[in-house]
Structures are given as C-alpha cells and as structure tokens.
Amino acid sequence: GSTNEDLVNIGQGNYTVQITDYNGCTITASFSLSEPPPVIANAGTNQFICGIDSIQLNAALPNIGTGIWIVNSGSGTFANPALFNSMVYNLDSGINVLNWIVSFGNCKDTSAVIINVISQIQSDAGIDREICENEVTLSATQPQFGFGYWQLVTGNGIIEDTLNATTLVTNINVGNNSFNWIVNNGGCTDSDLVVIIRLDSISCLQPVEMPTGFTPNGDGHNDYFIIKNIEEYGVNTLTIYNRWGNVVYEKQRYLNDWSGTNKNGEPLPDGTYFYTLTIKGIDKTIKGYIDLRR
Predict the structure, then answer these.
(1) Rounded CA gap, 292 and 174, in Å?
(2) How far apart are CA 198 and CA 196, in angstroms?
(3) What gap in Å lies between CA 244 and CA 111, rounded to an integer?
(4) What share of the chain is helix, strand, coil (3-state, %, to 5)?
(5) Left if phi > 0, otherwise alpha if psi is -120 to 50, otherwise beta: which for 94?
C-alpha cells in the first residue's frame, strides 16, 4: 500500500496516527501540529503626489517574517527595498504600482500600493485692482490640465460663472472684496487670491487741475478760468484775491464761468492774482496763483 498520505484542512492540535501494514500489523504514533500566525502584507494607502518623483512609502511592519518592495508596473528606485517605510525615487509620471511582499518560510502575502504622479499645477487669479463701479471682470489663468473654479472669500459679489476663468462679478461692496481661484488637475490643487477694492464715491472723483493763467480778451480762446473736473465737485467756493489780499471775486458752486471780472462785473487789470478753491464734502482747500493777461 501507500507509504504517504496528504491531509488537508487540518487545524493545529494533538493527533494520533495508526498505521496498518499488509500483514495486519499496526503501529501507533502521536504528534502535535502547530500553525504559525498568518502572514499579512499591507502596502499602505494609495497616494497622489504633485510635481515630484519621490515619496516615502508607509507599509505595515510585518507581524512575522520579512518584507521587500518590488516594482509591479511603472518605475521606481527604492532607497532600501527591505524597509517598510523606504523612500522611493524616479517614479514615472502617471500610475506606478509597487508591491510589498511579506515572506515567512514557505508562506508569503503580497499587497500593492498605487502612486499616482501628477504634474504640478499653479493657480493665477490675476492682479489686485481698485474700481469705482459695483462690478468687475475677474481674469484668472485657465489651467492647462484639469479645471478651476471661483470662490468668494471676503466682501460681497455675485459670480456670474464660477467655472470660467474670465467672468463678471456684480454687486461688489465698497471696500475689500477677495476671491479665490482654485485649480485641480485630478488630485493636485492650488489656489490664488485676488483682491478687488471698490473705492467710495469721493475717492473715485477725478482730481481738479488748476490753470496757471488765462487771457480773457474775447477772442474765444482761453477766455475763462477753466478748472478741469470742477463739475464733479458741486459744493465748492472759488475766491480770487489781488496782491494785497483783497477779495476781488468770489463764486459758490463755481462752474468755469469767471472771465477776469471783479465782483461788480468790471474787467480786472492784468496781473497776478491768488485763489483759494474750497471743496466741501472732502474738506479740501486748494491755493495758488493765476496770471491774468489780455
């Protein structure tokens, strides 16, 4: 008969074996069967990395036996393939599958981890700006790969199209309003902040520009004392003095209609005069001189 037998599904414990030969003779033997702890490999969680080709692996330290890293697909160079938390370098762009194999005697187990190497992505939300209106067009840079979206951070604003790099924003508040342009290319993200400052109505007024001379001789050219942008400052007072400090002309709500006359409407003699322009609402007084030549 057979001198050996394969036994399956036997657990650990004490066993007795009785063997009977051809002549009917028997022999009995006892033995103990022990089972080592199961060999378990755990390569860790899958990872995304952005713009670099190396990462520290994080397999589980084997409870029994020894482990070793190998490349299943893609590429990689291990600093120490026998170390559970080895660094790996020279990874390919895209998917890299690395196997962590734990062995103990004839027993072994394998676990795989995926390292996805993605190109670095950078967000550009555009330049900070000062505006006077209550709306603005945001102009970010559309990412070459992936997608981007706008997000209101501070202030106020209704974003017309959050997924468009160039989009209109309405209902901007006076003061600081900040918006984030967030880009994502499948695991890697970056963000950039743009600040839109809406100025108040006073700050948005064009500055007045004072002339240094005029020639009110009736030739239709330079006949009036023209203050550029004065029409934006309705509440103002223009006062003209002669060289002795006497007031020769004064007008509230001045609108570029002084032709070189005194308070009685009589032509003033040629010469140098001095002025003050007081603008209410912004508490500003501008002083200077003017040459009157006919």
Answers:
(1) 43
(2) 6
(3) 99
(4) 0, 45, 55
(5) left
User: Integer distance in angstroms from the first to the last C-alpha of the chain?
Assistant: 142
Write out the chain's pLDDT in tens, 294 residues.
567 777 787 878 888 888 877 787 888 988 888 777 889 999 999 998 988 899 999 999 998 999 999 999 999 999 999 999 999 999 999 999 999 999 998 889 999 999 999 888 899 999 999 999 999 999 999 998 889 999 999 999 999 999 999 999 999 999 999 999 999 987 789 999 999 999 988 888 888 999 999 999 999 999 999 999 998 887 899 999 999 999 999 999 999 999 999 999 999 999 999 999 999 877 789 999 999 998
At 151, is the secondary structure helix, strand, or coil?
Answer: strand
| DSSP codes, 17-57 | EEEE-TTS-EEEEEEEE--PPPP-------EEEES-S-EE-
Q: Count the residues in the chain.
A: 294
Provide the CA 45 distance to its chain's centre, in angstroms.
27
Q: How far apart are CA 153 and CA 92, in angstroms?
A: 37
| Residues in Cβ contact with 279 at an 8 Å cutoff, skipping those fewer than 6 apart | 208, 233, 235, 236, 285, 286
Helices (runs of H) and strands (runs of E) counted in the chain: 0, 21
Structure tokens at 66: 């020894």
What pTM was computed for the model?
A: 0.59
Measured at the CA of 158, the angle between CA 155 and CA 162, to 5 degrees, comes to: 110
